[in-house]
């Protein structure tokens, strides 16, 4: 990411989550703040966000983005039920969980690139969304700063388990930054958990899907946030060897879990993106 510029991909995924609230029924991911956080600033862009049912790639991407947020919060519920009371959003973007947190004891830490976090805070203020006492911001550039130090400054409790959501971030990192962050998560106490999404390398995809991959890759590159890191399922399983109960969902499993019995065409297309959860 460029140093002083907020993440354009964070806006792009937030626009799709907001469009989901407005145009898909029933919603897979209910987010009553998704539209409000964009406010008047992005209302016009929200109106232009692709919804066309004859554009399968666009629908499939929207489906993947709402499924991953839903999956993270489904796993968070499980973590909270087993006693976890810290939630860390790594690369939080315009995620709104912290502003609708239903768990009385859950403390939330939003970690993000400083420029993106500053932009989000301005948007929240402009749109009258209150910052709850349970939320702490921790600005971190994963490529340049220590997550551990910044979370310590933010008051993160290292003695207690935590649940981590790392959504839409892994493909933008170097392998070194990915491993440093994962190393930090792996060192957390038993009972901690993680949800992330990742993309498979281009040459692991069926030929027909490589065009969609190239199109998305060139869009994020133009946004100044090029894809840098992909994994096959065995490769990411090897990175997560210290975790147990690994669940790695492909398109068919995600569609069966979240998009069956719909009368519209909202569903994941293609096999590139995967959702993963793992526990310590
Ligand atoms: C595609 S957005 C996803 C945002 C959010 N997780 C969501 O699902 O809406 C990518 C996020 O990763 C963050 N990010 C990318 N590279 C980063 C880095 N080196 N350090 C910190 N954050 C980074 C961006 O600031 C942005 O918030």
Short description:
The chain is an alpha/beta fold and 280 residues long. The chain has nine helices and seven strands, in the order αααββαβαβαβααβαβ.
Q: What is the percentage of strand-forming residues? A: 5-15%
Strand order of the largest sheet: 3-2-1-4-5-7-6
- Largest sheet entry: 7 strands, mixed
In the predicted model, the low-confidence regions spanning at least 5 consecutive residues are: none
* Chain-averaged pLDDT: 94
Which descriptor suits the 3D outline? globular
Percentage of helical residues? 25-40%
Spatial extent as radius of gyration: 18 Å
Helix/sheet category = alpha/beta
Separate helix tally = 9
N-to-C order of helices and strands: HHHEEHEHEHEHHEHE
Taking the alpha carbons of the first and last residues, their distance comes to 30 Å
3D architecture notes:
The chain is α/β, with parallel strands linked by helices and 280 residues long. It is built from 9 helices and 7 strands, in the order H-H-H-E-E-H-E-H-E-H-E-H-H-E-H-E. The chain has helices at 8-23, 43-48, 56-81, 114-126, 147-153, 175-186, 207-222, 233-239, 251-258; strands at residues 86-90, 107-112, 135-139, 163-166, 193-199, 244-249, 273-279. Strands 3-2-1-4-5-7-6 form a 7-stranded mixed beta sheet, with helices on both faces. The relative contact order is 0.16. The mean pLDDT is 94. The structure holds S-adenosylmethionine (SAM). S-adenosylmethionine is lined by residues 1, 7, 9-10, 13-14, 91-95, 112-113, 116, 140-143, 167-169, 172.
């Amino acid at each position: 990411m460029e140093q002083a510029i907020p993440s354009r991909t964070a806006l792009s995924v937030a626009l799709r989550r907001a469009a989901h609230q407005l145009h898909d029924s029933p919603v897979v991911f209910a987010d009553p703040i998704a539209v409000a956080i964009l406010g008047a600033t992005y209302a016009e862009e929200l109106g232009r966000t692709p919804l066309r049912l004859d554009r399968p790639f666009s629908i499939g991407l929207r489906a993947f983005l709402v499924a991953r947020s839903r999956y993270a919060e489904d796993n968070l519920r499980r973590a909270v039920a087993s006693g976890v009371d810290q939630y860390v959003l790594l690369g939080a973007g315009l995620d709104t969980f912290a502003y609708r947190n239903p768990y009385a004891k859950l403390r939330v830490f939003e970690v993000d690139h400083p420029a993106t976090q500053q932009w989000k805070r301005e948007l929240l203020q402009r749109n009258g969304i209150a910052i709850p006492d349970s939320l702490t911001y921790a600005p971190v550039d994963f490529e340049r700063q220590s997550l551990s130090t910044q979370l310590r400054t933010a008051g993160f409790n290292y003695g207690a388990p935590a649940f981590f959501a790392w959504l839409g971030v892994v493909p933008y990192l170097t392998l070194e930054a990915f491993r440093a962050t994962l190393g930090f998560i792996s060192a957390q106490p038993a009972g901690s958990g993680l949800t992330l999404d990742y993309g498979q390398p281009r040459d692991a995809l069926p030929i027909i899907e490589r065009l969609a991959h190239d199109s998305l890759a060139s869009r994020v590159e133009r946004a100044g946030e090029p894809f840098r890191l992909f994994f096959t399922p065995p490769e990411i399983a090897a990175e997560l060897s210290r975790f147990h109960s690994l669940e790695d969902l492909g398109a068919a499993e995600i569609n069966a879990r979240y998009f069956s019995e719909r009368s519209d065409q909202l569903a994941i297309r293609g096999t590139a993106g995967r959702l993963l959860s793992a526990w310590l």
